[in-house]
Write the structure tokens for this entry.
Amino acid sequence: MPSTQAYLMLSATLFCVGLIGVIIRRNMITVLMCVELMLNAVNINLVAFSDRLSSLEGQIFAIFIITIAAGEAAVGLAIIIQLYRLRTSINVDEARELHG
Amino acid sequence: MLNALWLIPAAPFAGFVVNGLFGKRAGKSFVSAVAILGSLLAAIFGTVAVFQYHALYPHGERYVDLVYNWFSSGNVGADVAFQLDPLSVVMLLVVTWVGFLIHVYSVGYMHDDTGYFRYFAYLNLFLSEMLILVLGSSYLVMFVGWEGVGLCSYLLIGFYYKTDYAPAAGTKAFVLNRIGDFGFLIAMFLMFAYFGSVDFARVSQLAAGGGVEPWLLTAICLLLFLGATGKSAQIPLYVWLPDAMAGPTPVSALIHAATMVTAGVYMVARSNVLYRLAPDAMMVVAVIGGATALFAATIALRQWDIKKVLAYSTISQLGFMFIGVGVGAFSAGVFHLVTHAFFKACLFLGSGSVIHAMSGEQDMRSMGGLKTKIPHTYRTFAIATYAIAGLPLASGFFSKDEILASAWATPYFPTVGKIVWALGTIAAFCTAFYMYRLLYLTFDGKFRGTHEQEHHLHESPSSMVVPLWILAILAIFGGLLGLPEIFHAPNFIGSWLAGAVPEIPGAHHLIEIPAGSEWTVMIVSTLIALAGWWVARSMYKDKQLDTDRAIEQRVPGLARAVENKWYVDEFYGATVVGPLKQLSIFFWRIVDGIIDGIAAMLGYIVAGIGDLLRFFQTGNVRNYALMLFAGVVVFIWIFT
Amino acid sequence: MNWNDVAVLLPEIIVTIGASLLLLGPFLRRKPRPAGMSLGLGAGQPAEVSTGDESAKWWMLALLVITAISLIGVSWAAEGLALSAGFSQMFALDAFSIFFKLLFIVVIAMVALLSDDFLRESRYSAWEYYSLLGFALCGMMFMASGVNLITIWVGLELMSLSSYILAGYYKNEEKSTEAAMKYFILGAVSSAILLYGISLIYGVCGSLNLMDIEKSLSTLISNDALMFGIMLLAAGLCFKVAAAPFHVWTPDVYVGAPTPITAFLSTASKAAAFAIFARIFYSALHDFHLDWSNVLATVSALSMIVGNLAAITQTNIKRLLAYSSIGHAGYVLLGIISLSDWGIRGILIYTTVYVFATLGIWATILMMRRHEYAGEEIDDFEGLSKRAPFWAFAMVIFLLSLGGIPPTAGFIGKYYLFSAAIEAGYGWLAIIAVVMSAVSIFYYFKIVVAMYLREGKEADMVITRPLQVVGAVALAVTLIFGVLPAPLITQVEQSSHWMATRAAVPHVGR
């Protein structure tokens, strides 16, 4: 069993990958996936702590997060479809009508 | 009446509500009847209250009428309460009665205006707010009135909104007053934080009780004075007042001469305990007052617009009042406030009558020879000019003299006092000069306007002439209220106001002026005023405009600088208002070598920040995410 | 199953059931809609308008009334319990949460009224719209009551997910969809950041319950993981309240979203975020005040400066209000930074008065609306004093309240917040706040100038009954609480009492 530190390192790495992905990727689907990655990084954290602290709360929270992440994905995909319907593109860079 | 002081501001407020709701459909006579009734009721209620108060408290104790507790938390709180004390009484009487006269005058002046009901609704609202300002028993209630009169002032300055300049003037007044209000607000928060109260008496008591850090008192006083410089148009925030003349003339008389602009003087006098404990702040007040008095008077020397001359004259006279309260002669400052309300209201209403007769013309170069055409206006105007010039035995003579004598004899800062006295005396010379220049150019010589204007010349209706005469009489005899000690006559206003200036340990009380210096100062002032009059007479009575042409040829640069008001407007235009648009004008002025570089940077920075923020708002969501990330990094960086 | 717990949850249960039923509204109608109608975001053309949609508003209002009644009933029954935390300490029905829940219900009711016109014109399904508003309300109520980070976060997500959809409710408008997209991506990222912070706090404290966190923090010396957690949590919350530098989404989303939804985002959503902000920092993290206060002070100063300075150059009124709302977030943060009884009272008072003044402004803006995005430039307000004198006057009062000029309610709120800052030793922040209020008056006044001092255009106005109701309520609240604030203050003192005692606990941590 790896130490808690190792899990934390993994989760921090995943989180940063996700965040950087949101910043550099242009495809909205990829962006959505990156957001999911960030949420899962949090899940790893919570479960690792839960294990170390022998407290169930963290695992319960992780399940909540997974559930809501699914809802979030649904809303996100709906927005993507809407975006595609209007612009025939899901490149986030092209949607910049609002600025200033 | 005493237990219902709130009725005094409520009467004109009711007028505002009625006219605001029904005025549009009602006829002009209904509107004016409601408005005049509102102001008259306030005046009557006020007078009755004053008599009752005097009967109950002959020694000038403070009477407080609590309306209700506004809010309170723990031991800190504020009440909605009105008070009467000698200072409030003086202000109350001046505001209500002068306000009433100007309401009457307005009926004639505004008769043909389409915004008739709007005008009277605003005017009533103004009166109500002004009464809240002078009757409030704490800085907070005063601030409510302070902001209220400000709002009415902006609305009335911008009353002729179809012109290009009136809305701009309203905005300018608003912006500069905000700077002043910021000082007032901070001062109030400091009082709350350190005294737990903003009640006048409580703050004074705690401040006088000792144990208060001197820096705190100085800071509060200076911040309050910053508020006063905004409202009362002193250096450096005075530039809005000349532009405020864009409003209707009776408004200039009521708001921008007699009442609202004196609120700053009232506030300083009201805070006299704090100021006396912070002599440094007093010195600032006196010096700024002296500098403004002289500075504005020099600008008035070469203005052509009849209302602009009076506007700069108002700024200058307000400077005199600040000299008075700044050197510790609080009753003298308030005395000048009262006499100034009489003669300046008379002058403004007189100028309104002139403008009325001239079909809207305000340029003195197109006037001249009106003496015979509008005799009543001429006589009242001449009387008020005599009073403001400080010529012997009129009201302005006594009040200005008392201020200058106090500056000479002030115990707080004797050396600086002499300098302030000198500034004031030179300003007094200028005052006599520009006022008589105005009088001679307008009423003497030959008519210079168009034929059409000459045809239309007529004396104003009696609703305008009667208030003029009442004010003119007050302008002459108002001085009897405060005769100097050397005359061995009772000084009503001085002894009355002594009740508002309590004795406190560690600070000077009333200023004792030695009889010798009183005589000296009085003689010097008289000579100075006579000199001003004589110079103006010799230059303008017969030669009229030729003199100014000659001056321009001889000293062109200085004359132009004075005519352009020392370019201060341009300075503010570039730094405060609309930085982006003004930036180009601004650089052009730099080339002119008039405005210094630090101010340029300020305007540039504000515009730059706006641009920068827009630049960051790219519209690209990935950039936003990056900023989010950067924000988190900054968070962690600040923490570690 | 503990029935007491269920009783405490009754209002939330009612909202949930009600909102679900609203979603079924089209099917429950007598005349069923023709085939091809839409459900959800991705669907095609907007459904045809039918008279049935009119009744959606009334059902929504009825639901809100029932919720309010049940909430009052429950809180009355639960009186005496200082803190009745149910469901294993997940959910508290205390005075603080009741105050905010009532506020949310009133605000959602007003937003529903504001939406009436927009729904009729845009021809999108009113049932779904109100259902989403109902779910958002449910989320906000859970936020107000949550005393466990799980509850708080789930409530927050419920509210956010509903508002993402609502922001994109103009399905055929690129701007609206773009706003939804931006709001969604940034909201999801900020939510992940917040969660990461929570997970670290959980790791250090061993619990997600605010009371347990407080307990374990009182014995804890500062450590890096914990501070990291607090910082990330604060960053996520700052995003939700739109404080700089996490404000970038605000202007774009406010402009793109349908105006009633902008009204919702700038009032209810913000108030809910402040409720959890205050709850977490006052009741759980107060021992580490020294550590987080400087960061939040920086955020507050930055928000006030950025929001107010950027607003000066705006001409679109929605964008202007977006920036000004960033500034207002900065003021409210003063209440959190100062961590005192005055601070928490300031937060409650300011949120209330800000919400009503803002709703009044949105009501007036909606009156100017001609079709979808029109009526949003400052120029459109020219000559309003001629066209609709009463509403021009009301607008002045709202703007004065936002500017904090007495005797409007905004002054009382600012007064509490600024005094709290001075009292807590943040004099410099208070000075920035006062200066920036002075600046804010400048751009609010641009609107007043347009209304009173400019020639009016001959634009038509649509002053409908629902808008009048919202405007009148907002005006009454703004004026009454300005002149007679005592009832509000008494209420706030009671509602914040428990939190204020938390703030008074001596700081042992460091």
About this structure: The interface with chain A takes residues 40-42, 149-150, 153-154, 157, 161, 164-165, 168, 171-172, 174-175, 177-182, 184-185, 188-189, 191-193, 195-196, 198-200, 202-203, 206-209, 251-252, 255-256, 319 of chain C (CB under 8 Å). The first helix of chain C runs from residue 3 to 8.
